[in-house]
Queue: 4 jobs
Job 1
Amino acid sequence: MRLDASKNFDTLRTARLLAQRIRSDDCRVLARLYADPEVMATLGGVMPDVEARTRRFVDHMLEHWDSRGYGLYLLRLPTGAFVGYSGLRHVHVGGAEELEIFYALHAQFWNQGYATEMATRLCMLALDEICAPDVVAFTLPGNHASRRVMEKAGLRYERDVNWRNIVHVLYRRRRAGGASG
Ligand SMILES: CC(C)(COP(=O)(O)OP(=O)(O)OC[C@H]1O[C@@H](n2cnc3c(N)ncnc32)[C@H](O)[C@@H]1OP(=O)(O)O)[C@@H](O)C(=O)NCCC(=O)NCCS
């Protein structure tokens, strides 16, 4: 599904964050996040070839933007400080294609409500603006901070799924008035 070209979601704003569409030259700032062991502890650990992998991920997300009209955002404060990333993407998980909300922030910004603020904005984008029937998020069972973000953004635990051969908990939020089940 490619959105109507008149709809532009390149920039999103929350009360405290500016979210901007990823650009090709954002690789370096993202690679620094992916090179941080504290951030990566719940994301599979720091990869040995972090810069090349970041490049591949960014290229994939640029394609996602081109084909869908939404995707990965970099998050900044009004000061310009880089907080982390978040986004909305299509993934195949648990045997189905799902629309996923994802996020990771530099540790100095944890526990200040930023991920919840952005996840809530992305729920609005997915359900009210893109009009998807539902949106999911998933994480390791022990990632209580991420699970809490999902709950605060209105997602509810649905089931366990395998993601890259590791058990994850999958949460879902449906569009108000959409089909139940
Ligand atoms: C997950 C992550 C994005 C959360 O970001 P954040 O901005 O700190 O999230 P918020 O501040 O909006 O909310 C965090 C909530 O988790 C709670 N929390 C934090 N650590 C917790 C823990 N160990 N156990 C239980 N709750 C915890 C906080 O108290 C807060 O809940 P509250 O508002 O009810 O007090 C951040 O920790 C992160 O970037 N982690 C590394 C990458 C990652 O795991 N990404 C998610 C992959 S699915």
Job 2
Amino acid sequence: MEGFQSMTNVDGVITLTEDARIPVMDRGFLYGDSVYEVFRTYGGVPLLYDEHWARFENSAALISLQLGLSKEQMADEIRQTVSLTNAAQSGRDVYVRFTMTRGEGPIDLFPGPDLQTRYVIIVKAMHDWKPEFYSEGVNLAITATKRNPKNALDPNIKGGNYLNNVLGVIEARAMGADDCLMLNAAGQITESSNSNVFFVMDGKLVSPAETSGNLRGLTKAAVREACRARGITTYEQEIAPAAVIEATECFVTSATREVMPVRKLNLGNGTTVEFPAGGGALTRQVQGYYRDYVDAYLASHEHLSFF
Ligand SMILES: Cc1ncc(COP(=O)(O)O)c(C=O)c1O
């Protein structure tokens, strides 16, 4: 049986990821002038590809980027790239990151009309998070680094410029945490570096309001939908750090983390809030709801399987 190999597709040229190259004059490299999405497969079926594409289109619109491929063309390129990884033969699920840059041109911030977009699809084996992140939980810290304001670099632009998030996670690690929880300029909680956050407050599931400035996470939306289907109301509201001292549970969501409990939250002011190891009762319930949601999705989308 052949082993898995990570493959990358740059404008239709598929090579081993370690051999993939883009020109240094690409604006994605020079300015982070690009948009991207990440999804994973389950048994070869891509989870929520249509929804990822819709968010990709929204990110592109927010940066005035005309996408150079259709949803179907991108899916076809992804499928071809996956087929060269030996994912099927090695029984590995994959992580897919597709990017579109504004292309290469002169060193000039203004994107001229002659630029041609470039796409890059990276396919690698789905990685495993540390088991402790589930058996215990992840440790977060509220950083001094604030989330980009919506009216500067809208967090709904899932773009190649993630320096804000990089600085947040660097600061959180220096504080001894695994990841950051960033506030907006008004001091309200927004999100972690690459995941959305939920709290259990007064027995209710609450996540930060979209107006606080955070990415519209697809896993968060799936969790909310799965809860709604079971008659559990979830809430979105502005959340100040002081309010979470009383929170009884906390978890983060993303395509690759799924529903990951938070063990400790360092508020950055000398106070650390602790949550139940491995997630409290509601967190574990939500983990189950999300698994069921994924299973139902897979059952109705088998025809999309990459292998
Ligand atoms: C900043 C940020 N917030 C939240 C998320 C979670 O989004 P999703 O659930 O769609 O993976 C991500 C993941 O890509 C992210 O980068």
Job 3
Amino acid sequence: MTSQAEALLSPEGTELLALVAAAREAGEPPLKTAARLRRDHPAALVAAATAQDELRQAGRTKFSRAERMLFTRPGLEQASSETTARHRAARLAAAIPGRLADLGCGIGGDLIALAAGREALAVDRDRDHLLMAARNTAVYDAAAGLSTEQADVRDVALAGLAAVFVDPARRLARSTPRDPARRPGRGAPPGQRLRPGDSEPPLDWCFALTGQVPAVVIKAAPGLPAGTAPDGWETEFVADGRDLKEAVLWSPAVATATSRATILPAGDTLTPEPGDPVPIREPGAFLYDPSPAVTRAGLVEDLARRLGAWKIDDQIAFLSTGTAEHTPFARTLQVLDSAPWNEKDFARRLRARGIGAADLRRRGLAGDVDQIRRRLKLSGPHRATVVLTRVADKPWGLICTDPVTAS
Ligand SMILES: C[S@@+](CC[C@H](N)C(=O)[O-])C[C@H]1O[C@@H](n2cnc3c(N)ncnc32)[C@H](O)[C@@H]1O
């Protein structure tokens, strides 16, 4: 039986994909398009092309060339975005040239960056994913040195490789008509997420690859518990803007720090900066809300040292300074008002400033933000960020504004 990717890559599949896209662009209702195309083409192939066209539309959030790529839904959902894949691949290429393998390449979100300008072996046991990864790598003109192998990653010969990249699946395998035996056991539906911390292949298997290959890079969930990686490995937390995207584990051959926070797209990077303990004081004129990549990497104090900032509480990851410090590692707020939290008092302070719209951020304090907002009875033409937090363990409020728009 022909797999879905093979069917879509066939001349008729290719023609149908173009017809479906043209009909969508012309504004024809999808049901009408499908009915029309079924007159001359097999219904299953028309359905596959229609579903693929939808996936291509969805894929545009991750891939600039999505309209020419092929996806399965779980493959697209699990795929790295172009931005994160490029960042990782560039770092690996700079550190370790030579042939690499992408073990469990999926639809090739990472492969398109990893294979660019070097020899690469793509491995996946899912035939559709492997075919799609090869196709998608070619769409990015990165397939010149690419070879593929449909196999379980445990069965692949790794001798001679300079590096391996693994992005383990965090959900159960898809079941395809071609491979019904792969339907997972215990009645779990294919595609279902694995328990937090579980992956296929498991992380311990990935760590042990250093016994066979000089450099190993593993993509993991951003919620990865601290201390998961063995000694000598680097754990990098990567955010794209304010969104924490992933953890990347670098084996000792490529590690250059114990932990790292990286902010894309610029690629600014923060590593431990040892020094004196950071003091705790009441907030000054500027408040910094560190990127989740910084907090997950355990680098809040290191960021404080870099900024010359202090903490406002032992347990809370806000930093403060007296003068504005520009940093890509935190959202900076200018403090207009700062006092122990008292709802009635803050309602008065906000009214006095004419603040009618507020972004309420609660950290370290209990309370329903929507109910607090209602009780504050905001009114006026201005906007502000109101931070409800703790300062030296006391409930505290801050009325803040964005320093760029501050007048
Ligand atoms: C998270 S996805 C990879 C996503 C990919 N990095 C991307 O950006 O598109 C994991 C892939 O590993 C494959 N996989 C999981 N376990 C495997 C195994 N034991 N052998 C081979 N492939 C495996 C799955 O079929 C899936 O395609």
Job 4
Amino acid sequence: MSVSLQDQVVLVVGASSGIGRASAKLLAREGARVMASARRNERLEELRAALSAEGHPIAIHAADAGVLSEMEQLAQATVAELGPIDILVYATGTNTPDRAMKRLRPPIWDELIAVNLNGAYYITQAVLPAMRAAGHGLLVYVSSVSGHTPDVSGAAYQASKRGMLGLAHAIRVEEKENGIRTCVVCPGLVDTEILDKRPVKPDSATLAKALRPEDVAEAIVAAAKLPPRAVITEMTIVPTYL
Ligand SMILES: NC(=O)c1ccc[n+]([C@@H]2O[C@H](COP(=O)([O-])OP(=O)(O)OC[C@H]3O[C@@H](n4cnc5c(N)ncnc54)[C@H](OP(=O)(O)O)[C@@H]3O)[C@@H](O)[C@H]2O)c1
């Protein structure tokens, strides 16, 4: 039998658009107490207003995932406003049109690694002590099929996404004795704003067949609803046509 998410405290990082936004919405509709974070506060305000109108109030907190102190403050603010964190969803990510090695430069590499990988580590490090004390916790990381299958998404992006698989699996092995589970999600093409950062955006026929952010959010919620004795350690979700 699935576990209720009612009143579980969920921190969603990367909640201003795409997969993170869809996850925050679905989790709030499941009755979770959601903290939604990203940099664009106006987007977070819009999300909060939309969910509030549905009868699902959430908390918001603007923060840059690539900055350690901001992730630490985010974890503290979540506990202060909502209570101890039961579930973390790290859906933050970026890419660059300058992804090919002929165009990639060190500042771009640094930004991708900071946002896609370092931030996941920063927020995890900040939430883990309380999860250990509670004896439970679920850490969900949104990686990509690019994390396990070579493609043209760029060296920095693929390095960050492969790194995220290592992060998730290493933490699970270390923390399972504390009741902490990790789940790394590897989506294929999803129709979200990150596609605007491709050198060439997929055409409308391809986008029509792509996943929608809500599809990935459904998979995340399904993982979160498993009883504590079970964990989906890694899942790949791709459009059916592939
Ligand atoms: N779309 C796809 O085809 C696809 C496929 C596989 C994996 N993914 C992965 O899915 C995850 C979510 O991406 P998406 O597709 O939903 O794209 P998206 O709509 O562009 O969402 C990206 C989210 O990350 C946040 N973000 C970016 N830089 C940030 C920073 N420095 N600090 C805090 N938040 C930051 C954005 O918020 P702000 O800009 O407001 O900060 C936004 O909420 C990413 O990790 C992406 O790599 C996407």
